[in-house]
Amino acid sequence: MIRFKVFFFLFITSSFCCAQETVLLGYAKGFEGKDIRLFSHVDPLSQNIVVGDLTSIDSTGYFKLAFKKNEIAEAWIAINRYSAPVYLEPGKTYNIEIIPGDQTIMVNTWQHGELQYVFRDLDSNDINVLIANFDAAYFDFFTQNGTLIGSRLIRDKILEFEKKWRDVHLSASDFFKIYVKYTVAQMKLSNGFAKKSLFDMYLKD
Questions:
Q1: Residue whose C-alpha is closest to residue 10's, from 180, 192, 195
Q2: What is the mean pLDDT of residues 66-75?
Q3: Edge-first strand listing for the sheet containing 20-27
Q4: Helix/strand/coil (H, E, C) string of 20-62?
Q5: Is 0.85 topped by the overall pTM?
Q6: What is the mean pLDDT of residues 83-92?
């Protein structure tokens, strides 16, 4: 339920105001001639998708996709049934390079898989950097505190982790704050925090 709530709030935060065009410029060696699309979910419940743009990768490996949104949004880059998430800020231009893998030799497939890509340039305050840094800290947290899982001590560590990330990014976007808030809620739910208090804090309203 908490996981649904976070996706719902992230969806809501990107549903108002005036749409701006975000451009995704990319290079995909080995994928020449294949279609590439950029899509997002209509809502977090149905998981229905809307295609924001669709194009073919040219003979030199380059492509351009455009996406209109009024707030920061999660979107997906996809070639055939291989895909990868990307977070897009309205009005920005992103440069990415898709890393070739086994999927380049599969012309058409029903097999799901993940695309791998890197940003060619990205400022330190971009939502993709913030989320990547938070996710790294999240995984480091459990690596460093794995022996405490199942004990009361892990709960104090989670509260410290929560305070650190709440204080560090006071001026961050609502999108990022919600991402952090409900990821921490999931950490609490999985580590023995009282369900009633979690409901009151994260789901009641």
A1: 180
A2: 89
A3: 62-69, 20-27, 93-99, 116-121
A4: EEEEEEEECCCCCCCEEEEEEECCCCCCCEEEEEEEECCCCCE
A5: no
A6: 94
Q: Which amino acid is at 199?
A: F
What percent of the chain is predicted at pLDDT more than 70? 83
Q: Are 55 and 66 spatial neighbours (Cβ–Cβ below 8 Å)?
A: no
pLDDT at position 109, please? Answer: 53
Residue with tokens 């961050």: 172
d(CA 142, CA 39): 32
- Residue appearing with tokens 């977090």: 44
Strand 62-69 relative to strand 35-41, pairing: unpaired
Give me the chain's average pLDDT, please: 84
Mention every residue, 6+ apart, whose C-beta is less than 8 A from residue 99. 115, 116, 117, 118
| Secondary structure tally for the chain: helices H, strands E | 5, 9
pLDDT above 80 for 115? yes
Question: Within 13 A of 25's CA, how many CA atoms are on the CB side?
Answer: 7
Alpha-carbon distances, residue 39 vs 1, 3, 68, 74, 166 (angstroms): 24, 21, 11, 9, 30
**Average pLDDT of the segment spanning 88-102:** 91
Model confidence at 92: pLDDT above 90: yes
In angstroms, rounded to a whole number, what is the distance separating the alpha carbons of residues 75 and 106? 23
- Cβ count within 10 A of residue 16: 8
The helix/strand/coil state of 170 is coil
